[in-house]
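--- STAGE predict ---
source: upstream dedup step, 1 unique chain passed
mode: sequence only
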Amino acid sequence: MRRATIAAATTGLALLGGAAQAQAAPGVAVQFGCYLSGSPMTATATSFAAGGAVDFSFDGQLSGSGTADAAGNLTQPLTAPVLDFNTYQHQYTLTATDPNNPVATASTPVFVTQRTVTMSPKQGRPKKKIKFGVHALNPGQPVYLHYIFKKKQRYRKRLGVAKAPCGSLTKKTRFFPVNRPHTGVWTFQFDNKKRYSKHSLPRVLLKIQIFNIFK
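--- STAGE serialize ---
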């Protein structure tokens, strides 16, 4: 009797252990931490219902839908949201949801940026300090400002290091390295290369007009 009782108890524990295995919670992920406004991207959803629908939305706005495979996983092409003209960077919440079971949902933050440069104030004497805002260069790398006049670099300035995740930098610095730059149109090129090249990528260009003012 004792031997039979022990065997029965062991079998029951084995059955309980198998029933306790729970399905993994749904998840969603993207490849990069930041994307250019309106650029293509890919989201990966995991542990959803096998063969079920999955909706993807940015801040509650539907962006795309797909069908999970037999393992409940899905790789879905999406398009990053388009930012407003005056919005240079925004953190969205990307959410993957089973429309037939709203409890099955997962979210992840996604940054979106525009490759642009801002300056404040927008004009001033060459020696005046200007605040530059540079966006969408390579994060973690130095940012250089190349002063170009008549297709040649005249000066160069290191502004700092672009911050993750979107390669942004804000720097207040002197407008020009000299008090009397040549009059005419200058090109300010912001990039991650110490050596100037008009083919450097990524890069942001800004046109500056220099006038002579007589008093």
